[in-house]
Amino acid sequence: MPTSQDNPSLETHPAPSQRQKADVQPSTQPSTQPSSQSSSQSNTSAGAPLSLDSIIEAQVGFMQQWLGAQADTLSVQACQWFGEQPLCQYLQADDLKRLINDGLLQQPMSDVMRTDIRDILHAVIYHPINDNVPLSELIDDTQVETLASYIGRHDEQRNALIHTLIGNETFADLLTQTLYHAINDFMENTLDKAGGVGKLMKLGRSSFEKATNKNLDEKLQTYLHRNIKDLTQRAETNAQTHLSNDEVARLLVMGWSRIKDLPISEIQTYLNDEADNNSIEHIEASIQQSYNRLRLSPYLRSLVAASIDTWYSNHQSDTIAAVAASLPIDTSLASPLSTALRPIIQDALDSPWFTAHIREMLQAFYAQPTIKDSFAGRGDKPR
User: Fewer CB near the last or first residue (10 Å), C or N of the chain?
Assistant: First the structure.
């Protein structure tokens, strides 16, 4: 059998790291049971035939040492090779559809994931840094100006905004109730303080309701609602007529200028952080409810299929490196990624399960009839 003396190439692999050297250095402590590798070296130096077990153990140690020394180079080369392959060779549009529809969307979010989402949202929203960062860090002035100009240039959007602000019926109802309560409160307080005159006015009110068979409060509310609704409709019409595109855009920009310097933590004032009334939990639960309703619906699956078909048709002829760059994932990250994974790779190479698999592979190799016959033909019978 060939040894390192017969084949000098066995000694030309790159030098191992300090950790690897420590792994392959012979023990300096006395041992009653010499290792198989040291036994093979002593047998070789003495000219005695190598046992099959010692050959396998020597090869296992060599493979671990060589792979450990070449791990960085092999990782980078593997990434380069993988990046040069065309996407369509390994991935089809149907594969992506099955992955998303039958894999990701088939299962609901786990309780652990939902808890993580809530905790992360809470950490982000209530982080102390929000006290020192203005809203303008999230939204640039140019974004607001662009949106304002867009709304101002489009009559439909502009009129919808004006209707929401002025002509909304809910706003009219709210204003009606506010004025009614104010008038009613004023009258009640005035009549109570008016003495005999107040009692006389209350008597007149009662007589009016009996004579007309109508409740004065209801009559007042109806009158206010009819007139306020009419006023809001007139105000909406006038606003749509007189507010120019530039004026609408100016109002939006002016509104943004009033709040843009407020800290991001101002958002917290609109949220509750109490244990029994937590806004983040309500938001997450609402999102989860919508997600569960949509994830199995034909509507979402149709959109997913259309999106994948569009994306795949744009990139099916690209290499995997080109697809990664579009995400963007720079191929130059292969080297630092290899460095970051080096401890994991080294521990895997040194692990008992990897050693056992290599040993099992070599044992199966030498157990092949052709290999046995080759040894027998040369007169070598490894023990």
Answer: C
**Structure pTM?**
0.59
Query: d(Cα 177, Cα 116) in Å, to the nearest integer?
Result: 44
Identify the DSSP state of 283: H
Q: What is the DSSP letter of 376?
A: H
Q: In this structure, is the dihedral angle defined by the CA atoms of residues 72, 78, 83 and 84, taken in order, positive or negative?
A: positive
Phi and psi angles of residue 158, each rounded to the nearest 5 degrees, phi first: -65, -45
Task: State how far the Cα of 359 lies from the Cα of 356, in Å rounded to an integer.
Answer: 5
**SS3 state of residue 222:** helix
* Tens place of pLDDT per residue across the chain (383 aa): 444 444 333 333 443 443 443 444 433 333 333 344 444 444 444 455 678 888 899 999 999 999 999 988 888 888 889 989 999 999 999 999 999 988 889 889 999 999 999 999 999 999 999 999 999 999 999 999 999 888 878 888 778 877 887 777 777 777 777 877 777 776 667 656 555 555 555 556 565 555 555 565 676 677 777 787 787 888 888 888 877 788 878 888 999 999 999 999 999 999 998 888 899 999 999 999 999 999 989 999 999 999 999 999 999 999 998 998 888 777 677 778 778 888 998 899 999 999 999 999 999 999 998 888 877 665 555 55
Question: Residue 129: what residue type?
Answer: I
**Residue 43 forms beta bridges with which residues?**
none
What single string gives the DSSP state of each residue in 184-215? Answer: HHHHHHHHHHSTHHHHHHHHHHHHHHHHHT--
Torsion over CA: 76, 79, 85, 90 (sign): positive
- What is the rounded CA–CA span in Å between residue 178 and residue 225? 11
Cis? peptide before 328, omega within 30° of 0 = yes
What gap in Å lies between CA 21 and CA 17, rounded to an integer?
6
Could you give the CA distance from residue 240 to residue 159 in angstroms, rounded to a whole number? 6
Nearby residues of 165 by Cβ (< 8 Å), 6 or more positions away = none
